[in-house]
């Protein structure tokens, strides 16, 4: 190994990715309670789900005292001319300063340096790092020039990273990082990684799959040592990602390939205790992890549809309770189904906070039904379908094509097909 290598300095409020096993960014599966669960079981850092710069710009930062969270919200787009009086703001991003503030990395989807800076500025004081997603292969990301499209436009990707390094790091004293996939040949990947490392970033994560590869295809690790070497030479921390199942395996693989740490997605989606080392007890039974998850979700007043979606990945498909969970209408229902009697009181409080079950206002339910019926009666079937789709979404039913396409038993990798 080269001697006298200097590391890119980690800014005062930033975090060094070296020696860490971290939770991957995951749309829907990486919302606040999932991140807190991962931290509870020993994740060293957590990435938030990719949030597109345009959706953050224009949001208002609010403190939610009852849940102890900070939320970036915007007025809901109802698709109809007059929004209901009791319409709640849409929450675009949510974090818990006390429970994850020191460990949270904000990941953004972007294809423009100015917008990236504007977006980062909104959250930089509340998080410990900003990460740019340059790996998402799905058309909704790549057609806009974001995600994996950035791997083919390295000038643009470097300009984004440089703009963040120059504007965000000095002001907020946090580091900038990037998450990429491997390219077809080692030579192409090497050229890209060298350029990225010269932008001033403090960290780089490599998902060891090429852009066309599907999540079920085995990760390819034959470029990893080279990538880790290039990063080390430049003083940039390198995290490996792809088919890492546990903390112990992540640390072993990182050492084997010369990487600095590892990132876990799908294994953590299923059972977050994968972050616990064998020495500390290893994998916990799914029932214990589910109970922890439900409790945390209620504490942070998580969107109920998201809680059910995540539970569908955590409760093994063969369990009798798997199906009924998706039918639940409130946290109380969920606790009853899962026989979490000790959480029933908390469940009632959560239902009251988020307006579920007996606390769902009759007016709200009526409004929703009336909206769909009125739109359909007026011939606006497209709009009616959209409202219905939004309802399904908030009930945890899949709306993304990649999700609807999957067979029910493949819940585990729910959005994996759309993953970066
Ligand atoms: C449900 C889901 C959502 C994901 N969303 C994102 C995302 O927002 N940003 C990102 O960079 N990668 C995303 N990914 C990809 C993962 O971060 C990770 O790179 C990939 O799943 C490979 O890791 P694994 O083999 O440990 O699952 C997602 C993956 C899954 C399964």
UniProtKB/TrEMBL annotation:
In this chain, the stretch annotated as Disordered covers 67-88, 377-420
* DUS-like FMN-binding domain ranges (all copies): 90-277
Q: Which GO terms describe its cellular component?
A: cytoplasm
InterPro entries documented for this protein: Aldolase_TIM, DUS-like_FMN-bd, tRNA-DUS-like, tRNA_hU_synthase_CS
An individual GO BP term: mRNA processing
- Cofactor(s), by name: FMN
Where composition is biased (Basic and acidic residues), the residues are: 79-88
Query: Which GO terms fall under molecular function for this chain's record?
Result: flavin adenine dinucleotide binding; tRNA-dihydrouridine20 synthase activity
Task: List UniProt keywords, sorted A-Z.
Answer: Flavoprotein, FMN, mRNA processing, Oxidoreductase, tRNA processing
Answer whether the UniProt record assigns the keyword Flavoprotein to this protein.
yes
Q: Which reaction does it catalyse?
A: a 5,6-dihydrouridine in mRNA + NADP(+) = a uridine in mRNA + NADPH + H(+); a 5,6-dihydrouridine in mRNA + NAD(+) = a uridine in mRNA + NADH + H(+)
- SUPFAM superfamilies attached here? FMN-linked oxidoreductases (SSF51395)
This molecule's function is given as:
Catalyzes the synthesis of dihydrouridine, a modified base found in the D-loop of most tRNAs. Specifically modifies U47 in cytoplasmic tRNAs. Catalyzes the synthesis of dihydrouridine in some mRNAs, thereby affecting their translation.
Protein known as:
DUS-like FMN-binding domain-containing protein
Q: Name the source organism.
A: Pseudallescheria apiosperma (Scedosporium apiospermum)
Taxonomic lineage per UniProt?
Eukaryota, Fungi, Dikarya, Ascomycota, Pezizomycotina
């Amino acid at each position: 190994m080269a001697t006298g290598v200097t590391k890119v300095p980690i800014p005062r409020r930033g975090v060094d990715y070296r020696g860490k096993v971290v939770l991957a960014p995951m749309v829907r599966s990486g919302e606040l309670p999932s991140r807190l669960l991962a931290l509870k079981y020993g994740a060293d850092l957590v990435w938030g789900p990719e949030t597109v710069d345009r959706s953050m710009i224009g949001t208002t930062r609010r403190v939610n005292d009852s849940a102890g969270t900070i939320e970036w919200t915007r007025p809901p787009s109802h698709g109809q001319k007059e929004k209901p009086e009791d319409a709640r703001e849409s929450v675009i991003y949510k974090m818990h300063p006390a429970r994850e503030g020191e460990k949270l990395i904000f990941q953004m989807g972007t294809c423009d340096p100015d917008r990236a800076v504007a977006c980062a500025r909104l959250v930089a004081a509340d998080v410990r790092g900003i990460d740019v997603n340059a790996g998402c292969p799905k058309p909704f990301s790549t057609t806009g020039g974001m995600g994996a499209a950035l791997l083919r436009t390295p000038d643009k990707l470097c300009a984004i990273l440089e703009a963040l390094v120059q504007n965000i790091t000095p002001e907020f004293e946090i580091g900038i990082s990037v998450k990429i996939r491997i390219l077809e040949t080692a030579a192409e990947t090497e050229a890209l990684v060298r350029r990225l490392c010269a932008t001033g970033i403090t960290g780089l994560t490599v998902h060891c799959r090429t852009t066309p590869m599907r999540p079920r295809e085995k990760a390819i690790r034959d470029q990893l040592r080279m990538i880790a070497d290039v990063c080390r030479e430049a003083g940039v921390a390198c995290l490996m990602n792809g088919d890492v199942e546990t903390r112990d395996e992540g640390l072993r693989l990182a050492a084997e390939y010369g990487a600095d740490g590892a990132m876990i997605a799908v294994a953590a989606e299923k059972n977050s205790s994968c972050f616990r080392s064998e020495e500390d007890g290893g994998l916990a039974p799914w029932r214990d992890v589910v109970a922890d998850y439900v409790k945390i979700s209620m504490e942070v007043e998580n969107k109920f549809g998201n809680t059910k979606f995540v539970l569908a990945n955590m409760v093994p498909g063969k369990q009798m309770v798997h199906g009924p969970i998706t039918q639940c209408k409130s946290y109380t229902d969920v606790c009853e189904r899962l026989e979490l009697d000790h959480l029933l009181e908390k469940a009632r409080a959560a239902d009251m906070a988020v307006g579920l079950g007996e606390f769902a206002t009759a007016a709200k339910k009526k409004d929703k039904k009336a909206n769909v019926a009125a739109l359909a009666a007026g011939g606006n079937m497209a709009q009616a379908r959209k409202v219905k789709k939004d309802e399904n979404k908030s009930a945890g039913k899949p709306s993304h094509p990649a999700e609807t396409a999957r067979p029910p038993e493949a819940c585990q990798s729910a959005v994996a097909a759309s993953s970066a």
